Each structure stands twice: as structure tokens, then as C-alpha cells.
What we know:
Elements: E1 2-3, H1 44-50, E2 54-60, E3 63-70, E4 82-84, H2 98-104, E5 109-112, H3 130-145, E6 149-154, H4 156-167, E7 172-178, H5 195-205, H6 208-218, H7 224-235, H8 243-253, E8 268-274, H9 282-291, E9 295-300, H10 307-310, H11 312-333
Parallel strand pairs: 1-9, 4-5, 4-6, 6-7, 7-8, 8-9
Antiparallel strand pairs: 2-3, 3-5
Helix pairs in contact: 2-11, 5-8, 6-7
Amino acid sequence: MLAVTASAVPTLFPTCKRRRCTILAVxxxxxxxxxxxxxxxxxxxxxxxxxxxxxxxxxxxxxxIMSSCIRPLNLQTKQSPLVLLHGFDSxxxxxxxxFPLLEEAGLETWAIDILGWGFSDLERRPSCNVESKRExxxxxxxxxxxxxxxLVGPSLGAAVAIDFAVKYPEAVENLILIDASVYAEGTGxxxxxxxAAAYAGVAILKSVPLRVYxxxxxxxxxxxxxxxxxxxxxxxxxxxPWWEDATVNFMISGxxxxxxxxxxxxxxxxxxxxxxxxxxxxxLAVRLHCELPNAIIRQIPDCxxxxxxxxxxxxxxxxxxxxxxxxxxxxxxxxx
Length: 336
């Protein structure tokens, strides 16, 4: 497994430490639909990205959902658009450190909130099962992105990406899977819980102690003060009144079970893995590499389960190089 070291990061991506990075200073004018607790977030990168979140109308299930995302500043047609998903019960703010680096590299970068999570308006309580998540994303892609994309899925977002790429291959040119959670058999026994028990479990999922503790499992190195702030970022979307209903709906629906779809993925795929992932074994990275028909794999040293949060420079470089290589190969096969 090829490792990516910090020294290999080119000058195109300035070192994006949380304490120093070249970003535009903006007034923190947050969208009115975000929970007011966004004001409590200290992380400047998260605050900056939050100011760019918007809601777009997406036709879905005989109605329209105001769906949250971050649209690109750079619109171009030479490369496929880069579309970033997030992990389980998260939001587009997961990309707070890597997103600005990708834009600085000139990539047309979108960050999309998966239906049921993030900051979309779910007041009408739509279904949030796998089929609904897939169809909602397809309608968003069809309405706004409109071109075959390079789709990036971290953690459970990798399962979302595989499911989507297999069902809508015309929409996906390439895949990038980061510490992919793709071998779990859905939500398992949780799908069989009585609704009352499911709601009790979801209340625990929302709890501050659990979220802080989880940060120490997910990231290799994190201070307690940083964990508290990152907990506020990761938990922000949970403060909507519909969050519990959407999460229970997904849980009892059975969740994602994509292991049998892996060998149906025809798109070229980049697998990125944190060397010190304590959530998903590196052995599964090797297995995924073997089972995908057309994949390359890269490992990031001294990194846990979410490299795009913990090592944004390395992830941005890998994504940029992968997209550049893909574009060059496509250019070579275009007839003169």
C-alpha cells in the first residue's frame, strides 16, 4: 500500500494546519436556517464554510425539499465536477479543511448533504431510507450538477457513493473512497428495534459525552478542547426538530448493505486510507482494493478514520493528482 508523507505535499497546497492557512477572511454571516448554536463554533474554517451553505429546491417524492449544499466558486468544463459526500450522521462541514484547498487548486467542488443528515429542510418528514437518499441525490445531480462527476465518499459515504454509482453509472465518472465503511450489513439488529427503543438509542447518539468520546477514537491525535469544538461542529445538524425522526427512519429501514455491489463498480476508483484507523481495519482497505475492478490505493501515515479532517493537505493532493491523471487519459482518447 503506497503511503503519502507530509513532505510529498506540493506547494500547490499550503500546509493547512488549523492555526495557519491561506483563506479569505469573511464576516461570519450565517444562513438564517442554520441552528443558532453555529455561533458557538470556534473553528474558523468551519465558520467560513458554514457561511456558504445554501438550500436548493430539489423535486423529490411528489414534493420539493430545500436541500443543503455548498456550491462551487469555480465553474469549469475541462474536468468533471468534484462532489463531496460526508459520513454517517454528519454534514458538509466535515470538509471544512479540505474544501478550500480543492477550490484553491481550481477544481469545481461541491459538498452535498445526504438526505436525512446535514442542514436540509425536512419539516415534512420525508422517508430517509437508502432508496430515498439515492433518488434525492440523483434529482439534485440532475437539476444542478448535470455532468458526470468524480464522487467522493468518506466512511459510510463510501457506501452511499457505491450504491449511487452502480444504480446511476451515467452520473459518475470516477470514485474516491476514504476509509470506506462498505462491509457492514446495514444497521443490523438495530433495524428490528421497537420504535421507542430506536428513539432512545438515537437520543444517546446525540449525546455530548458519546460524541466527545467518539472523537478520540476517530482521530489519532486530538486535544480535549479541539474535541469539544469538533463535537459542536459534528452535532450541529442534530439540533433540528426532525433529526431524530430522520435518523430513526434510516435505522429501521435497514441501512446500506453494498458488499455485493462492489464488483459491479466500473468507474476508476481511488481508495484513501488512514494508516491508524481504529474504526475500520486496514485489512478491509486491501480487500476493497482487490474486489474493485479498477482501483488504486493510497495510505496516509499518522492518520485516523477521517483523513480529510486530520490530514487535509495529503487528501487534497491525492484527489487533485487523481483527477489530473484521469483528465489526461481522457484527453488522449479523444479523436482529433
